[in-house]
Design brief:
The structure holds two protein chains of two kinds. Chain A is mainly β. Chain A has no helices and eleven strands. The model of chain B has no long low-confidence stretch (mean pLDDT 92). The chains are: A mainly beta, B mainly beta. Chains A and B meet through strand 4, strand 5, strand 9 and strand 10 of A and strand 5 and strand 10 of B.
């Protein structure tokens, strides 16, 4: 079982502010890093899959970076909006299996 | 537009009962997974299947079994439910072919089944 750590566990952000949070994972046996967004009362939805060291992905106001050598990924939200409120899960992939972190819960207040 | 369907959103069962959680996907995906989600622990893999009639244990298989008789259907079975199996259960599927391509392993999740065992 991979040890996947996400920090912080939760954060509160004012609407319009930018924020970021971290996913740390063992760099050995790494194949890809997945990010998912899980809104209350909905299913988790895939945001990004990254494989290469230095990869950067962007989807609207959300972006992510990957450092496979040191084993971490950052997810950034620029100009947070209330609809960004969700739990963000990262999951390193080893072979065909994903190992999920406990998530970072983001609450954006107007 | 629903792609992964879980049969029940909420279930309440008694200790010792046999419980079936059903999951159906309509995307012709090879891989199917069962996870449970508990506060502070994230999603933990119970069982997964790469093919019909094939199953592999995940990280927490104790107390569970699975069945995959058809490609589109993956069932989770609690032979004798216990209170520590009260949880949210999520089914997911992935394309699976050419697993070395990262996109092949992106998961599509069902809506979840919240099970309470009294």
């Amino acid at each position: 079982i991979l040890n996947v750590e996400q920090s912080p566990q939760s954060l509160h952000v004012q609407e319009g502010d930018s924020t970021n949070f971290t996913c740390s994972f063992p760099s050995s046996n790494f194949y890809a890093l997945h990010w998912y967004r899980w809104e209350t009362a909905k299913s988790p939805e895939a945001l990004f899959v990254m494989t290469l060291n230095g990869d950067e992905k962007k989807k609207g106001r959300i972006s992510a970076t990957l450092n496979t050598k040191e084993g971490y990924s950052y997810l950034y939200i620029k100009g947070s909006q209330p609809e960004d409120s969700a739990t963000y899960l990262c999951a390193p992939q080893s072979w065909g299996k994903l190992q999920f972190g406990a998530g970072t819960q983001v609450v954006v207040t107007p | 537009d629903v792609k992964v369907t879980q049969s029940s959103r909420y279930l309440v069962k008694r200790t010792g009962e046999k419980v079936f959680l059903e999951c159906v996907q309509d995307m012709d995906h090879e891989n199917m997974f069962w996870y449970r989600q508990d506060p502070g622990l994230g999603l933990r893999l119970i069982y997964f299947s790469y093919d019909v009639k094939m199953k592999e244990k995940g990280d927490i298989p104790e107390g569970y079994s699975v069945s995959r008789e058809k490609k589109e259907r993956f069932s989770l079975i609690l032979e004798s439910a216990s209170t520590n199996q009260t949880s949210m259960y999520l089914c997911a599927s992935s394309f699976g072919r050419n697993w070395w391509q990262a996109g092949a392993n992106v998961l599509t999740f069902g809506a979840g089944s919240r099970l309470t065992v009294l």
